[in-house]
Structure formats: structure tokens, C-alpha cells
Amino acid sequence: RARACARMTRAQKFAAVGVAFASLWAGALKTIDMSDDVRRLVIAAPLYAIIAFAIYSTAYIIHAVWTFPECPRAAEALARDVARAQRQLIARRVLPADAFDATSPPHRA
Q: In 3-state terms, what secondary structure has residue 38?
């Protein structure tokens, strides 16, 4: 229980980074000796941060989906469960007997 309290959740980390960025941004805006080009860049920094976060999030999701592990044993177990459920539905006359072949597991696409 003590370890759980010591860890920061993902939301807390995100909030901490956001507060740090906002304070740096607000401090940079208060700097008096800035050229107009630098001031425009500082004002647009939150937009750039949001765009960078969106790109990072998209890349992270694509990587997670691309490297998602396959579980052949779990797939076989699920196919057996589906076939058993189909046989039970046919036995209870919820589904017609000729709806599909209930003796073999469904084919994977």
C-alpha cells in the first residue's frame, strides 16, 4: 500500500509536465527583451506542444498495434468456447441447426 502511494499515476505525470510547461511559458511571456519573432514563437508554443503530443500519441498507438503479440493458445481456447456456445444455442433451439457447422470451431479470417 505504501508503494502505491509513492508512485505517480500517468495523469499525475501528465499534469506535472503540463504545469511545468505552463510556468515556463508564462515566464517566457513576461520577459521584456524579446523580439517580435521570438514573442510569436513563444505565444505559439502551446500549439506546437499539442501538435507534438498528437504526433507522439499517434506514433505510440501505431507502434503498440503493430507489435501487439499474438496468442495462438488463447485464440484456440476462444474458438473452442465459441463452438461450444454455438452447440448450446442450437441445442436450446435459439439458432437453427443448419446455421453453421457446430462440430468445428469457426474459421479465422
A: helix
